[in-house]
């Protein structure tokens, strides 16, 4: 999440050479992303940290402009229109929406399980510039939305339908000025259960990895289609994947009182099983490469990436 780091040779810093990332990326003590172990999360029943529900204002029809940054696909809010505002929950004050972008595979993991894709909706504390926000521990707030893949179904209007239509025009990262306008309902990119989430203090997941982010990781993934997922995976972002490796979970992770895990039900358990099944189906074509790459992701294996597709 955040801007890409470009060394002098012009190449983008990908997961394979994170050890070369500068500043807090190596020296920081509260880095992101992390593996959220649900059994270790703290349910904030009495509102000591999560003070009331999250409040979403103006997230309906938002004017955005899309671009391929060379590391991800990003949709920036148009400056001449009203921007959505997020408040409540773990946030102290208002946060203005700036942009959202995509990572594949997911950056965060839940109970050790990665998802095929993750959406980051970036907000800056209202009244601050991005440069100013990067100097404050509470400068940024990011909603992270995990995506699970289901088989294509013509009768299902999947969450990324409108975005997928734009992808062919954003395929090439070397094409200058490929910015495309769109009006989008940002609620479509979020879980229907927006008050069910995990939250912790962490960092940007690209250099300089400043530890200024209040992370709000939605508990329930959204559903995207298999063809959508494959389409995004074909986008040129300087490598096959554009996520950062997991960092130590050396801090408190809170769970909202609206979490379905607080009172697990048979339906919730079924949803978890379906999520695992869908992830396996989406990667079965990669065969042994899926196992090899999982080893590399979770255990920082130094072997070359297996490309079985």
UniProtKB/TrEMBL annotation:
The keyword Zinc applies. Residues 16-32 have a biased composition (Polar residues). Residues 1-32 are annotated as: Disordered. The keyword DNA damage does not apply. It catalyses: hydrogencarbonate + H(+) = CO2 + H2O. Its cofactor is Zn(2+). Keywords: Lyase, Metal-binding, Zinc. Residues 3-257 form the Alpha-carbonic anhydrase domain. GO terms for molecular function: carbonate dehydratase activity; zinc ion binding. Its EC number is 4.2.1.1. It comes from the Eukaryota. Reversible hydration of carbon dioxide. Belongs to the alpha-carbonic anhydrase family. This is Carbonic anhydrase. It comes from Papilio machaon. The lineage of its organism: Eukaryota, Metazoa, Ecdysozoa, Arthropoda, Hexapoda.
């Amino acid at each position: 999440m955040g801007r890409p780091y470009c060394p002098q040779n012009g190449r983008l810093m990908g997961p394979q050479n994170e050890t070369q990332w500068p500043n807090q990326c190596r020296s920081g003590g509260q880095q992101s992303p992390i593996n959220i172990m649900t059994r270790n999360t703290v349910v904030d029943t009495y509102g000591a940290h999560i003070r009331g529900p999250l409040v979403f204002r103006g997230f309906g029809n938002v004017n955005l402009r899309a671009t391929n940054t060379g590391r991800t696909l990003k949709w920036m809010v148009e400056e001449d229109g009203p921007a959505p505002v997020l408040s409540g929950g773990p946030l102290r004050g208002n946060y203005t929406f700036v942009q959202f972008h995509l990572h594949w595979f997911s950056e965060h993991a839940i109970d050790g399980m990665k998802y095929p894709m993750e959406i980051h909706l970036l907000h800056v504390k209202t009244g601050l510039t991005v440069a100013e926000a990067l100097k404050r521990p509470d400068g940024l707030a990011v909603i992270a939305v995990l995506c699970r893949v289901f088989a294509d179904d013509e009768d299902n209007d999947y969450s990324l339908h409108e975005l997928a239509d734009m992808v062919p025009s954003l395929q090439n990262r070397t094409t200058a000025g490929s910015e495309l306008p769109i009006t989008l309902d940002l609620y479509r990119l979020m879980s229907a259960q927006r008050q069910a989430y995990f939250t912790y203090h962490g960092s940007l997941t690209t250099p300089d990895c400043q530890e200024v982010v209040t992370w709000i990781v939605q508990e329930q993934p959204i559903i995207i289609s298999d063809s959508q997922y494959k389409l995004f995976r074909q986008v040129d972002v300087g490598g096959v994947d554009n996520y950062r490796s997991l960092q130590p979970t050396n801090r408190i992770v809170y769970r909202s009182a609206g979490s379905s895990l607080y009172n697990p039900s048979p339906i919730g358990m079924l949803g978890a099983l379906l999520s695992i099944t869908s992830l396996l189906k989406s990667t079965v074509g990669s065969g042994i490469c899926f196992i090899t790459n999982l080893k590399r992701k979770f255990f920082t294996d130094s072997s070359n990436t297996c490309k079985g597709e």
